[in-house]
Amino acid sequence: MDKNSQGVAKAEVRLKWDPSPWNQPPHHLDIIATTYSTDAPYGRPVYVVHFDSRSPDGTINMSRHSQTGQGFGYVEAMTVELDRLAPSFARVVVGVAIHQNSGLKTFGDISNAGVLVTEGYRELLKDEFAQVAGSTATTVAEFTRVASGAWEFHASVRGFDSDPVVFTAEMGSAP
Questions:
Q1: Residue 3: how many CB atoms within 10 A of its CB?
Q2: What average pLDDT does this structure show over 14-42?
Q3: What are the residues whose beta carbons fall under 8 Å from the beta carbon of 128, sequence distance 6 or more?
Q4: Stretch 122-130: mean pLDDT
Q5: 99/92 Cα distance (integer angstroms)
Q6: Which residues contact 26 (CB under 8 A, 6 or more apart)?
Q7: DSSP tally for the chain: helices H, then strands E
Q8: Phi, psi (5° rounding) for residue 99?
Q9: Strand order in 10-16's β-sheet?
Q10: What is the pLDDT of residue 34?
Q11: Burial group, residue 137, by CB count within 10 angstroms (0-12, 13-18, 19+)
Q12: What share of the chain in percent tops pLDDT 90?
C-alpha cells in the first residue's frame, strides 16, 4: 500500500504574517480547527480548538502562537493527529481568522500572510490568501475520514466575512 492510500496520519498547519507598522494596532490572526461527528458531518462542531485551547483528547493542539506576527517565518502552528481521533469523528476543518478588535481588517490588509499545511516533509497546501483578500476569515483545509478509516486531505480555501467566534460556527458548513 503506498503512502497516499494510507491517508494523512498527522498534519501540521503553520501561519505567517508581517507585524503591523509601529504606529498601528497589532494584526492578530489565529488558526482554528473544528471537529465534526459521523452523525452530523456538516452540523455543529463537536469541539473547537484555537489559541487558548486544545482538543479534550490531545489530538489537536497549538504548538506555537503569536498575537503580533513578530518572528521569522511561520509564527503560529497547530498539529492535528488524525490517526488518533476516535472513530466517531468524520471531519476536521481548519481555518484562519483575523481578530477585529481594532477595526475591520481583511487578508488584503495584512502583508506577507500565508499558510502552509504539511504531513511530515510533504507539502499539502501553501497559500498566500490572494483569493480571499477581501475576507476576514478563511477555511484552508478539510480532512475527511473515508470508509477504510483513513483520512483524506482536501485544500479548502474559502473566504468568510465574520469574526473568529461566528466563524467557528460557519466554517464547517457545506460549500
A1: 11
A2: 92
A3: 113, 114
A4: 97
A5: 22
A6: 19, 20, 67, 68, 69
A7: 2, 10
A8: -65, 140
A9: 60-64, 76-81, 10-16, 114-119, 122-127
A10: 97
A11: buried
A12: 73
Confidence (pLDDT) at 4:
46
pTM of the complete model: 0.93
Q: State which amino acid sits at residue 91.
A: R
How far is residue 82 from each of residues 20, 55, 154, 173, measured CA to CA in Å? 34, 12, 14, 20
* Phi, psi values for residue 83, rounded to 5°: -65, -15
Residue range 43-80, pLDDT digits in tens: 999 999 988 787 989 999 988 777 776 777 898 999 99
Encoded amino acid at 157, one letter: V
DSSP character for 168?
H
Q: In this structure, which amino acid lies at residue 54?
A: R
Cell, residue 127: 497559500
Average confidence score pLDDT of the chain: 91
Amino acid at 108: G
DSSP 3-state assignment of 47?
A: coil
Q: What amino acid occupies position 10?
A: K
